[in-house]
Amino acid sequence: MPITWLHDEMLSPAWLREGVPTLFVFDEEWIARERLSLKRIVFLYECLLELPGVEIRKGDVVTEVRAFAERHHADTIQTARCPLPRIKRQGEELGAQWLDPEPFVELPGRVDLKRFSRYWRKAEKHVIG
Asked: Hey, is 50 helix, strand or coil?
């Protein structure tokens, strides 16, 4: 049986699956290092409260996810693929199975992701019509 490890780049009900235990860990090291504001932490927490059945912990992500997986007798830890180095490192340490998110929109050709406005000019035609 798998578990789902939610991280801060996948706070959406689209990742929740019936009967699959799901965990989010407030990464205390990351919060301290990045000096996240209380406002940002509250925003994350409020997002999590909108997701039914998600267990919320704080501490070391790898330690907490491993303990959660053991408690649920999980054979797989699933999480969304993410380009952030800290999440990639944690996922690799956990041996996580990376899930690819559904793209917001399929765009033909090369897409410039350096500026949102350039991306949106191209994507808007496909999203809105």
From this structure: coil
First-to-final CA distance of the chain: 41
CATH of the domain spanning 2-99 = 3.40.50.620
More confident residue, 123 or 54: 54
Give the mean pLDDT of 23-52.
96
Q: How far apart are CA 48 and CA 71, in angstroms?
A: 21
3 state SS of 123: helix
Sign of CA dihedral 29, 32, 37, 38: positive
Task: Please report the sign of the dihedral spanned by the C-alpha atoms of residue 52, residue 53, residue 57, residue 62.
Answer: negative
Q: Where are the strands (E) in 1-129, listed by range?
A: 2-6, 22-27, 54-59, 76-80, 97-99
Residue 101 CA to residue 36 CA, distance in Å, equals 26
Residue 82 belongs to what H/E stretch? Answer: none
Reading the block at residue 43, the tokens are 């925003």
Q: In the prediction, which pLDDT does 111 show? A: 78
Structure confidence at residue 129 as a pLDDT band (50, 70, 90): low
Strand, helix or coil for residue 1: coil
